[in-house]
Every structure is written in structure tokens, then in C-alpha cells.
Amino acid sequence: MRPLSAPWRSLRTYATGRRSRIGPVLSLEHFVQRARALAFYRSILRSTRHIADARTRAETCRFVRDEFERHRGVTDLDHIRYLLSTGKTEWESMERYISGL
């Protein structure tokens, strides 16, 4: 039997669940939750454009970034779902406040 070439070797290690060269391999559910978190982060940044005061806008963006960075290492799916749920609730109430200004 002929040995596998380099591209097929990387596919083989991916299928076996070993760590890849580009980082840890995510499960499908982790991948989906990561995409939801990134989409939520982007929607918050888009929404902050409506804040009139530049200093308040910058402070809000910095706070949002710090919160996402603080929870970057969370891997428990239930905890990730909880963080996204509470974050969306908090941001919706903040949006109502911002639109009232």
C-alpha cells in the first residue's frame, strides 16, 4: 500500500480528532455558537454607530470588546448559550435606552 501524501495526512488527522496545525478542532455545536457570538458582536458594533456622543460610543465599544475578551476561553456549551442569551437581553434594553436619547 502506498503512503498517503501530505494533504491526505492532514485530512486523516482531522477525522481522528487529533489537534490540527491551525488550532483545536471545534465540534459542530461549538462552531455554530462561535458564529452566533461573532454575529452578535458585529450587530452590537453596528448598533453603536447610532450613539451620538463620540466618547460614549468609544466607551461602549471598549466595554463590549472587554466583555467578549473576558469570556473568550469559555468552552462549556450551556454557559456559552447562557452568555449569549443574557447578553442579547442586556443589549436590547440598552438599545431602547440609546434610541430614547
UniProtKB/TrEMBL annotation:
What GO CC annotations are associated with the protein? mitochondrion
Where does the protein principally reside? mitochondrion
Taxonomically, which superkingdom?
Eukaryota
| Swiss-Prot/TrEMBL keywords | Mitochondrion, Transit peptide
> Which positions fall inside the Complex 1 LYR protein domain?
36-92
Residues annotated as transmembrane? none
Report the protein's function.
Involved in efficient integration of the N-module into mitochondrial respiratory chain complex I.
Q: Name the family the entry cites.
A: Belongs to the complex I LYR family.
Q: What is this protein called?
A: LYR motif-containing protein 2
| Species, as recorded | Parathielavia hyrcaniae
